[in-house]
Design a protein that fits this description.
Layout lengths: L1 H13 L2 H9 L7 H13 L3 E4 L6 H10 L5 E5 L6 H5 E6 L4 E6 L6 E5 L6 H13 L1 E4 L2 E4 L5 E6 L12 H4 L4 E4 L5 H11 L14 H12 L5 H15 L12 E3 L3 H17 L7 H12 L4 E2 L1 H5 L4 H11 L4
Parallel strand pairs: 1-8, 1-9, 2-5, 5-8
Antiparallel strand pairs: 3-4, 6-7, 10-11
Length: about 325
């Protein structure tokens, strides 16, 4: 108990910068607290984030604001149908004078990557990201290069205007720790957005709050957040319920074709620790799992044709799972 108290006090102190970081981001982003929390969870836990929302909801601006509040290398890559893997990773260039090849590194060699409209590029470009996202390395020719740490991919996609897009394969979707869905702002938030952004003068620049080295130190601190055995069991029960719902008295088997993978279990545990850290706590509570769980799972479940025919969504199934699984 004394050890837990010490961890809790230490994390309260080490998470103090979160307030300043959010204040900087809020200079550009009005509302969208869940979005900002999701981005910070991905950053501080070493995960990647997929953002989905209709045009104009500040997905790209949110990512750029996060990068500006961090003293780290940032690259924005606009995904288009004619993009090539070498445009992303880099390539070998023949030097005629020295009669040898030299490596020209691509924009992937940065701390934070914004893959804007990722679903507009073909599969060969999307798959070029897989090694970078999972192994934190890139192979060009016969040489493998380690990427800078921390390394984070933030991808945006548009749920409408699907003509000419390439849906992300399940293997790549599973590489993203979180999928955040962004909704329209409230009326009050919309008025604030108009007051702040409907100007022709340049907006004030954000001041960096934290460095990459400090982020790596925070990631080690998050590992120390206490995860009670009952919470661990709760996480596993949720994941197992997506695979074998009948064992948990859930009548949703006909609507689920595939459940979540073990990667989801790991991601949910790490993200819950990161969320507790954002709250200044050194331990995870069940509500942390309920809060962050849908963002971890919504892109990992594959529903059946019966579900689509009955207009039952992944969100509906997740809500039922979190409502029915016993909370410790």
């Amino acid at each position: 108990m004394e050890g837990l108290t010490a961890i809790n006090e230490a994390i309260k102190e080490r998470s103090a910068f979160i307030i300043s970081l959010k204040q900087q981001i809020s200079k550009m982003i009005i509302g969208q607290e869940k979005l900002i929390d999701g981005l910070l969870i991905g950053l501080l836990s070493g995960g990647h984030v997929l953002l989905e929302g209709v045009p104009g909801l500040a997905k790209t601006l949110a990512v750029k604001s996060l990068a500006a509040a961090i003293k780290a290398d940032f690259q924005r890559i606009q995904f288009t149908p004619d993009l090539l893997p070498s445009d992303l990773l880099g390539t070998l260039i023949y030097n005629q004078a020295s009669s040898c090849f030299t490596t020209k590194k691509g924009p992937i060699f940065a701390n934070i990557i914004l893959a804007d409209e990722i679903n507009r590029a073909p599969a060969k470009v999307q798959s070029a990201l897989l090694e970078a996202m999972e192994e934190k390395q890139v192979t060009i020719g016969e040489t493998t290069y380690q990427l800078e740490k921390p390394f984070m991919v933030l991808a945006t996609q548009n749920p409408i205007e699907q003509q000419g897009t390439y849906p992300l394969p399940e293997a790549q979707l599973d590489r993203f720790m979180l999928k955040l869905t962004i909704s329209y702002p409230t009326k009050d938030e919309e008025l604030l957005i108009m007051d702040k952004m409907a100007v022709t003068t340049k907006q004030s620049e954000l001041e960096p709050v934290i460095t990459p080295a400090e982020i790596l130190a925070v990631q080690k601190t998050i590992d120390q957040v206490y995860l009670d055995p009952k919470i661990k069991d709760y996480i596993v029960n949720i994941i197992m319920a997506t695979r074998e719902p009948q064992k948990y008295q859930l009548d949703i088997s006909e609507y689920l074709e595939y459940g979540a993978s073990p990667r989801a279990t790991i991601s949910l545990a790490i993200a819950a620790k990161a969320y507790a850290f954002l709250q200044g706590r050194g331990y995870v509570v069940p509500n942390d799992i309920k809060t962050i769980g849908p963002d971890i799972l919504r892109h990992r479940l594959i529903i059946t044709y019966e579900a689509e025919a009955s207009e039952i969504t992944v969100e509906t199934l997740l809500q039922k799972i979190f409502d029915e699984i016993e909370v410790p």
